[in-house]
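Handout, page 2. Input:
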Amino acid sequence: MNRRKKIKQLLAAHAKKASAKKAPRKKSTYISKADRLKLATEPAPEPSTPAEG
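Output:
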């Protein structure tokens, strides 16, 4: 490998690592269409409110 190719390869590796650090850590998990429909049909749990007086 010549000197120019080595330097270019090193710079590319550093850029790849830097962009990986900026990337989001974890993507949201995939929910299938059937599961989305099932969740939509189920009633959502209502937040409990303190009973007044």
